[in-house]
Fold this sequence. Notes:
With about 240 residues, the protein is of the alpha/beta class. The protein is built from six helices and twelve strands. It starts with 13 loop residues before the first helix and ends with a strand.
Amino acid sequence: MSKQIHALLPGEDPFGQALRDHLKGKRNLFIRVHSDATSEDHIDVKYLFREFTDWPEIEKKAIALCRGKILELGSGAGSHGLYLQEQGFDITCLDFSPGSVSVMKERGVKNAVLDTYQNFGATGFDTILMLMNGIGIVGSLKGLRDFLEKAFHSILADGGQVIFDSSDLVYLLSDPGSTIHGFKNSRYYGEVRYRMEYEKTFGPGFSWLFVDFKTLSIECKKLGLKVEKIYEDDHFAYLARVFK
């Protein structure tokens, strides 16, 4: 397995700090996103608190596939977890941001856990759910293989499934404003480095994976796993289900 990654400390958690400020009533908040692939971007914090009716189709379809005991990775503000909890599911929401976990608990998520999937030891789940380019948390193609091995060897029960969305960054290869072209000989073009900033608080840099479906299929086949594309939108994003 890849090396263990530990939960963030409160002072290095801009994402969680922004979520907490929104919950306290502050509005028009944005998290600045620094990347080595594109120009600076931002996340509108209120988007992370949206209701089911405002979710994109890809997320609604993912939720419809969930079954049994669920583990959501990278739960953020807990919007997906809260909805599934209200539908009667037994769901654990995992995040390595202490601010995120605090917010989830205040919003009513019954089982919000501060941890990383690398360290997480619970087993017997029927579904692992990862949304908003959720598979990105694995960081790299090697991280993808490590994650899937752990998921199907220890986290999931027999017959379990992993449901996630991702995007193919191929469109950036023709964008003159992107530096992704330089990745070609050094790493897979979907492996991107990020750093978050909010209110002059910077989080540590981290790697994020955007994996095209063909590459995902190849990696799954190496591990003896099956994958199906459930949905694809008009912006290079797709929803996938991996199973044995």
